[in-house]
Amino acid sequence: MVSCTDLGVKETDSFVITTESGEFLGVDAAGTLSSAYNEMNWQNTQENLYALNEATTDEQFIPTRGTDWGDNGVWRDLARHAWTGAHTFNYKAWNYLNANVYRANQILHPKTTKTAQQEAEAKFIRAYNMFWILDLWRQIPFREADQGPAVLPSVKSGQEAFDFIVADLTSALPNLPATAVGNIGAQNKASKASANYLLAKLYLNKHIYLGGDAQSADMDKVIGYVTAIEADGYKLQDGFFGIFGPSGDNETIFWANGQYEPRIWGSLHYNQGRETYNTGGGWNGFATTADFYAKFEGPADNNAPGAGQEERRGFVPANSLGVGFLVGTQGGPDGVVKARSGSPLVFTKDVPALTGQPDYTGVRLLKWHPGVKLNRGKDNEKDSATINMAGQGLNHLVLMRYADALLMKAEALFRKGDAGQGLILVNQLRVIRKATPLASLTADVVLDERARELYLEGWRRNDMVRFGKFNAKFAFVDNTDASRNIFPIPDNALGSNPNLKPTDGY
User: Alpha-carbon distance 377 to 237, whole Å?
Assistant: First the structure.
């Protein structure tokens, strides 16, 4: 027997590119930058980073229906907060984010020839990916582009990690362009607004990452960064669901170019969209909790057009696919959509368990609609009579949005003790979303308003952690240990890099 073995080092938390002599000679800045941007498209999947941030919350969960969505229990473990360091979405998200940090390091190395704007964009990309690593795991492995596989990545955490990300963004700001509002082009690019947004998000969560209480000086920074975004022309847009369509809008600051089909078909029933949208139908997976649905203004038992619900809750027409929260009898172009049993498809609010569920339990969420823009507001009795394929497959997966920035500013004011000014901003948003203005502002009200505005946009876990709600009992969660507020360093990463420390509580 003859065998040939070529044992190379397989990196699990970063990757290494060198010449045959082992010397790093730089990379093509434009090509590597394009690759780093393209890796943002990885967020369009329903798994990995998205799953960690959404399928672990009260906003979304995935029950097993027969054998569908069993997947060896990975979804149930997220819903029950029973994940471990070996969870597949945990280590895939870790590997993806760390790999993109390394791409940015290659561009930023002195041996790579680059323009000032390319360097600024690479710093933004590095900061964006490091932000998520800090947020999810609190430890960031770091390898310079010219360090070979024999050098173990160092680890940044706490104040060092926070300061490093802030330094990247602040040094990048002067050389980033002020992207025109409403410019949805073929390739998304970092801008001054996206850097200011990420800085606001960092300082809003600083006390979570470093410990202690929110500081007034940090909240002032949040307010200042959001004010800078406003100075670039971003503002609230009338017509909520139109923001998530194919054309430009006043709110989108940063988006992924990846197609957003998983946001469409992940929730829809197998028979929804089969005829109208020329597809095999939905995947019948993701649902939301009855408690989350109840956060929205409107009658509890009716989500038909013109039922008095706020715009963000959407509506379910009689003769076409609805938008927003799909509950009750589901309509289609030929009448009522049928469940697999042949009976009318009626989505129920209650899901008794995570296993053994029929195909109709659970309210479904549809924010990116496969048809045209849908802008039915409160008390608008018009139906969505014409639906077509105009929006499907277009590359506008929103990652940063002005409404989020406005709510960050309102929250910062509230945490500073100025609930009155914070309430004014929240009510600005509620009025344009056709919801009744609020009389007062509390921590729960701030969190709930973020839920109503930002569902499916990847921020629910981050928000729940900041307000102390993520390690509380909700839906199918009984594990209230504070260790659940962060994810464990993946087992394979711990095995390859002793500089990483096992996460407390795992």
Answer: 13
